[in-house]
Amino acid sequence: MNQRITAAHAKARAHLLSQQASLAHWEGKLSSSALSTATAIVALHLVDAIRHAEPIRLGVKWLVTHQNRDGGWGDTAISKSNLSTTLLCWSALRLCGLEGGEAPLVRQSRALAEAWIEGQVGSLEPDALQQAVMARYGRDKTFSVPILMLCAIGGTLGEAAWRRVLPLPFELAAFPRSWFGALGLPVVSYALPALIAIGYARFAHAPPARWNPLRWARALLWEYISPMLLMLQPSSGGYLEATPLTSFVTMALASAGERFHPCVPGAVEFLCRSMRPDGSWPIDTNLATWGTTLSVKALGEIRPEITEWLLRQQYQERHPFTHAAPGGWAWTDLPGGVPDADDTSGAVIALRYAGMGAKKAAEQGMIWLLQLQNRDGGIPTFCRGWGTLPFDRSTPEITAHALLAWWTWLPQTDPEPAFLQATQRALAYLQRVQHQEGSWSPLWFGNEHTPQEENPVYGTAMVVSYLTGQPCLHELARDLIERGAQYLRKMQRPDGAFGGDAEAPASVEETAVAAYALMSLSDPEMQQSGLRAVNWLLSATQDGTTFASAPIGLYFARLWYHERLYPMVWTVQALRLACEITAHSSQS
Asked: Would you list the domain boundaries of the chain?
C-alpha cells in the first residue's frame, strides 16, 4: 500500500506541475457556464446584434447543445438543472436565437425549457416567475434583480415586465463609501456596478410617478453617478473579471438607451475576448492567485519565481472598487480582481515556505486580515461591517483560514496582543456557528445534491485542517477539532469516499479534503479513516493520473462552477500526507 501511495503521489505531483501556466504560477481552467453564455449573448445583442452576429450564433448553438435532457440548464455542463439558469437561457434564446438556419432547433429547445419551468414553478405566468426567483434568493437582490431584468429584456415577463423587476436604489452610490454598511444596500459589496446600471435601467423603463420626488432626484443624480461605472471599471473592461457581472451592466445600460456609455466599449471587448472557441463563456477569467497558493500548499514547497510572482500580486494601494486597505490579495492576477480574505490567507500561508524574506509582506497580509474581522469575531469575504447579506457575512472556513494564516507566522515573531485577542474572538465565533452534529457550513462551496445545497463535509474538512495546521492553534481549538472530525467520520461512505454529506454522490474534491483533515490528526482511528479515503482516491484518479472535476464551487449567489485544479491540488495534498503517515508506520 505504501508503495502504491508513493507512486501515485509522484504521478499526481508531476501532473499538477505540468499544469502551470508559467514557471511562476498556475492559472487553472474554470468550467464553461450556461448562465454566463446566456448573459453574454444578450449583452452583445443589445449593443450591436449585427456586428456581434457570429459570437451570438455560436453562443446560441452552445446553449442548445448543452441543454439537459430534462429541458433545463445547470450552471455547468455537468450540473443539475436550476431555475435561475434555465430562465436566463430560455429568455436569451427568445431574444437572440430565432435568426439563421438553426431556428427550428432553438424553438424546440425553448419548448423543452418552458415545459421544465412550468413543472418547477407551476406556471409560465410572469407573476409566478417573479415570485419563484425572489423566493430562491430571499432579500439578497444581487442576483434576483439581474435575472428578472434579463427576463424583461428577453420578453418572458409579459406586459409591464419592468414593473416586475425590483427597483434598486442606484442613487445611494452617491453617498460616501464609508456609509454603505449603514445604508443597508440590497446587493453585496462587490456588485456596486450592477446596483448602478440595473438600478438606472429599471428607473428608465419604469420610473416612479411624476409626483414622487424620487423620480426627479434619480434623474438629476444619474449625471453624477453615471461616470462611476467607468471609474470602477478595470483596464481589462471586465468587472471582477466576471462575465455575468460585466454582461448585466452592459445589457442594463444598452436597454436604457446608454449603449454608448464610456464603459460599454471596454466591457464588450472583454466579453468578446473571453468567449471560448466552442461559443461558451466561463464565469470568471481565472483564479490564478487562488490556484497558485493552493498548489504551493499541496506541494509543500515554493520556488523563488513563484514567491516573486505572489509578492507582485499584493495590493500596495487602497483598492478603487471596494476601498480595501493595502496589504491584501485577490483571487486573480488580472486588473479586475478585488482583495479578499480567503486569498489573502492563502498567500500569507504559501509565503511561509519562502522563509523570513517574505515576512514583511506576510505581516501586511496578517494586519489586513486583522482589520477585516467583524464584530461577531468571524472573518467576512470582502468588507468588514456590511454583514447583512450572505456573501458579506462572516463565514467559518474563511475565519479558520485566517487563523491559520496568523499562526503560521506568529510562532516566528513576538505575537502582538491584538492577534491573541482576535484569535480568541475568532474561535468563539467558530464555536457559536458549529452545528450540533459538529459540522460547519461554508459560504463559497456547496453541493447540488444536499438539502439547501450546502456542503458541510467540505466546510468541516477545511475548518478542521486549518485549525490543525499549527501546533499552538491546534491546542487552542482542540474541542472544536474533535467534534468536527467525529462528524467527518460519520459522513464517510462504506467505500471510504465522501460527498457533500452522507447521502450525496462522492467526488474527488470532497474525498481529498476530508482525507487530509482526518489524517492531520494524531488519533490512529482518524488517520485510518483518512487512509480509507485515500484508497478510494487511488481508484478514482487511476493512481494519480486522471482527475474528474465536480461542480462544488460557488460564485456570486448560488452560481456553480468546477475548476480543473481543485481535484489535482487536493489529491496531491492528501497523497503527500498519506506518504508521510504510511512511511512513519512502516518504520515503527
From this structure: 2-29+285-587, 34-282
Collapsing DSSP states into helix, strand and coil, what is residue 33? strand
Position 557 scores a pLDDT of 63
Q: Which pLDDT score is estimated for 535?
A: 97
What are residue 281's phi and psi, to 5 degrees? -130, 140
Residue 324 confidence (pLDDT): 82
Bridge partner list, 553:
445, 561
CA distance 222 to 181: 22
In sequence order, which ranges of 520-564 are alpha helices (DSSP H)? 524-540
- Rounded to the nearest angstrom, the gap between the alpha carbon of residue 183 and the centroid of all alpha carbons in its chain is 25
Residues 311 and 489: their CA atoms lie apart, in Å, by 38
Burial of 220 (0-12, 13-18, 19+ CB in 10 A): exposed
Region for residue 453 given its phi and psi (left: phi exceeds 0; alpha: psi -120 to 50; beta: otherwise)? left
So what's the pLDDT on residue 348? 98
SS (H, E, C) 363-383: HHHHHHHHHHCCCCCCCCCCC
**pTM across the whole model:** 0.94
Q: How far, in Å, CA of 488 to CA of 439, rounded?
A: 8
Check residue 25 and report its DSSP letter: E
Query: For residue 568, what pLDDT is reported?
Result: 98
CA 196, CA 192: separation in Å to the nearest integer? 6
d(CA 210, CA 230): 30
> Who contacts 4 (Cβ-Cβ below 8 Å, separation ≥6)?
538, 543
Would 2-29+285-587 and 34-282 be classified into the same CATH topology? yes
Q: What is the predicted pLDDT for the residue at 161?
A: 95
| Residue 284, φ and ψ in degrees, nearest 5 | -145, 160
The CATH fold of domain 34-282: Glycosyltransferase (1.50.10)
User: What three-state secondary structure class fits 459?
Assistant: helix
Where does 158-212 have alpha helices with state H?
Answer: 180-183, 192-205
Class of domain 2-29+285-587: mainly alpha
Residue 30 corresponds to which cell in the numbers above? 474554470
Label the pairing between strands 553-555 and 559-561. antiparallel
Please state the φ and ψ torsions of residue 63, each to the nearest 5 degrees.
Answer: -65, -45
- C-alpha grid cell for residue 262? 464610456
CA neighbor of 90 nearest in space, from 116, 55, 52, 125: 116
Q: How far is CA 171 from the centre of its chain?
A: 28
Give residue 185's pLDDT.
59
Tell me how far apart the alpha carbons of residues 251 and 48 are, in angstroms, rounded to a whole number. Answer: 11
**Unique residue bearing C-alpha cell 433545463:** 72
Instruction: Profile the chain (588 residues) by mean pLDDT over runs of 10 residues.
Output: 92 97 93 97 97 95 97 96 96 83 85 97 96 84 90 94 90 69 58 90 92 85 93 94 96 97 98 97 97 98 97 91 87 95 98 94 96 94 67 89 96 82 98 98 93 94 98 96 98 97 96 98 96 98 97 82 97 97 75
User: Pick from 578, 453, 439, 433: which is nearest to 518 by CA?
Assistant: 578
Interacting residues of 588 by C-beta distance below 8 A, sequence separation 6+: none
